[in-house]
Structures are given as structure tokens and as C-alpha cells.
Amino acid sequence: MTKHFRSRLADVIRQPLITEKATRVLELNQYTFEVDHRAAKPDIKAAIEQLFDVKVAGISTMIPPRRSRRMGRFTGKRTRVKKAVVRLAEGNSIQLFPES
């Protein structure tokens, strides 16, 4: 575990990503999260297992290129985003959409 998140694993996971592709892979027991760009795979695994009380089978991470954005004549870059696709062990699941 890296020194950034030794005492605060809840800061590793920012939010779940709900896209078309992320919704399709839910059937394969894979969940997509936006994570802190400094987080390593052991940090992400520990945070998911602690927060959701599940067993993680594997993690894939990616840092897509930053996109340029324009507001009138001003250009800039979007914030840095790191995505993590977490594959859970058989029989485990995360309730992303609570039933009302």
C-alpha cells in the first residue's frame, strides 16, 4: 500500500462510472470506478474490499489522455482521471442502484 492512502482508503474511490460500456460489463461482475490518479492497484483493492465488503478477483486500471476544452477564446485541459475496472469474485456483488 502506498503512503498516500495508508490511513484513509475512502479517499481512493471518487465515484462509480455509469456509462454504456460500464453498464454492459456489470453482467460480467465487473464494476468501473473513477479513482485518485496516485492510487495503485493494492490501494484500490483494499478500498473496494473495505468499503463494500466484497472479495476482489482482479483490477485493470487506465489513465486516458487528457481532453482539451474551450470556453470562448480560452482553452484548457480537463482534470486528470484514472479509471479502475474491478472484477469481483464469484458470488459477490455491489449494490450501485439501491432499490426504492
Number of domains: 1
Name the structural class.
alpha+beta
Strand content: 25-35%
Total helical segments: 2
What is the end-to-end distance? 37 Å
What are the low-pLDDT stretches, counting only 5+ consecutive residues below 50? none
What CATH architecture do you see?
Answer: 2-Layer Sandwich
**CATH topology descriptor:** Alpha-Beta Plaits
Helix percent band: 10-25%
Strand order, largest beta sheet: 1-2-6-3
Q: How many β-strands, per DSSP?
A: 6
Envelope shape: globular
- Rg over alpha carbons: 15 Å
What would CATH call the homologous superfamily?
RRM (RNA recognition motif) domain
- N-to-C series of helices and strands: EHEHEEEE
Indicate the CATH class.
Answer: Alpha Beta
Biggest sheet record? 4 strands, antiparallel
Q: What number is the mean pLDDT? A: 89
Question: What do you see in this structure?
Answer:
With 100 residues, the chain is an alpha+beta fold. The chain has a single domain, classed as Alpha-Beta Plaits (2-Layer Sandwich), CATH 3.30.70. 17% of the residues lie in helices and 32% in strands. The chain contains 2 helices and 6 strands, in the order βαβαββββ. The protein has helices at 20-24, 41-52; strands at 13-16, 30-35, 56-62, 68-71, 74-77, 82-88. The strands form 2 sheets. Strands 1-2-6-3 form a 4-stranded antiparallel sheet, with helices on one face. Strand 4 and strand 5 (74-77) form a beta hairpin. The protein is globular. The termini are far apart. 15% of the residues are buried. The mean pLDDT is 89.
